[in-house]
Amino acid sequence: MDFRLAIAEQILVALPEVSLTAADVASMLEVPPDTKMGDYAFPCFKLSKALRKSPVMIADQLAGAIQADFIARVESVRGYLNFFIDRAIYAERVLTAADAQGDRYGSDNSVESKCVVLDYSSINIAKRFHIGHLSTTMIGNSLYKLYKFFGWKAVGVNHLGDWGTQFGKMIAAYKKWGDRETVERGGVDEMVKLYVRFHKEAENDPSLEDEGRAWFKKIEDGDEEALSIFNWFKEVTLKDAQKTYELLGVTFDSYAGESFYNDKMGPIVDELRAKGLLKEDQGAMIVDLEPYGMPPALILRSDGATLYLTRDLAAAKYRKDTYNFDKSLYVVAYQQDLHFKQLFKVLELMGYEWAKDCEHVSFGMVSYEGQTLSTREGRVVYLDDLLHQAIQKARDIIKEKSPSLENKDEIARQIGVGAVVFFVLYNNRIKDIDFWWDRALNFEGETGPYVMYTHARACSVLRKAEAQGLPEEAPDFAALADPEAQDVVRLIEQFPLILKNALERSEPSMITRFSADLAQAFNKFYYERRILDDDMGARAARLMLTRVSKNVIRVALSLIGLAAPERM
Ligand code: ARG
Description:
Layout: H1 3-14, H2 22-28, E1 40-43, H3 45-51, H4 55-65, E2 71-77, E3 80-85, H5 87-101, E4 115-119, H6 134-149, E5 153-157, H7 166-177, H8 180-186, H9 188-204, H10 207-221, H11 224-248, H12 265-274, E6 278-281, E7 284-287, E8 297-300, H13 308-323, E9 327-333, H14 337-349, E10 358-363, E11 366-368, E12 371-372, H15 383-401, H16 408-424, E13 433-435, H17 437-440, H18 448-468, H19 483-504, H20 509-528, H21 536-559
The structure holds arginine.
Arginine binds near residues 161 and 312.
């Protein structure tokens, strides 16, 4: 039930001379800062001109005329009409609706077969997965789940960074100093070592650079040996990354990365030329974006090589042709703001009206204990190290507090990952994140483990109730009129709107924060009220509140990519 709209309708019944729709009036309603002033307030001055009456007179007139079962009382206070919703009816309507929708509560069934393509994580080959990639991976994963929840078809793309001259250097280094077994065993770490050594030695031996270039040329020309080494580098990287994705519970529908577009850029360059967009500039080919206040978009280097942007043009078109998306989102850090502005502008200049459906979901940078991340200076946190530490901490706590828990390893994984992911998804995505080990590994206060623990607590109450035999009495919703229960109901009522806003703004943090708020409100209720009351009507109502809270917390957690264990 939409209480705003229902109140608006009551106002219009009492004021037939006003020619506004209920939706108009509903949008004028305010939520007073303090519930002592009502649940909703109507500022009557908004109608005083049309009615040619003072706000005070209008408020007085309305106060005498409005009557509805769900309105406990109205008060006219200095030109405001304050509405107090009947607490029992409020709880009844909100909980009944949420309970009936079960796992679907909060979703929107009006979306018909729309498709979104999400580009997230998009890691680079031969580089280790560090905390800098956590935001894109988890924001993308959350949006992927959220869109699906709202009935969209979602395509998750890991646009691998698997092209560039550095891979020629890596092959040169591997051929000189590497061996297959060491790389197989050491994985990405070994490849990084080779790369670092290449750069060190190249300082004294410039011929190495030529060798690197020659190997890259071989990759480009499709040389068998070069390609087989390169593809193997890719396999090793993905095998490493896959372990991290598994811990995180993140999946993709496609791993088509930069190299996938090698044969798809020729047609794009031709098309740019045919559309008169390509210009020569010191031997390079560019699209002039000066009229739009941007530096030129570099399409071909003077040696004919394509660029990151060229690949993204081909990728954008490929995604439209393949998935016919209604929306295409790129979850990438804000350092690439300009890149995506240029990309979308060029697509628009090419005449693709769907350029407007492409959107850069940018996010802030990660620093490490107050300083920028730097692999060279050792200021770097590898994701698998972090996750394993968090999981170990969870395991230790479980061992101490619930030694008889079944499935300890899996639950420790869920809790540990929950702590880390919750930490990165807690703030507005555009805010920079300063990473501190103790904060990411914190399990108390507004953290993932705390929310998960609340969920498990609700599950435990429900199990206990069931063991005692569920009440046959109908819920007595008057038992939910206290402030603690009402706070929980109010949050549950807001859930659909929170999700809608999170989707529209691509902002998973709204869900993260909501889950913490609901957990907190539920815990307060749990401590202040007796859920398993002797009065069976009250017990039934409080159990219903517990059940719905549990479901909503679980759905909220799942939409930020987290599990909700039933026991902890
Ligand atoms: N691999 C790139 C990086 O790590 C991100 C790629 C983002 N996606 C894209 N279509 N450009 O910076």
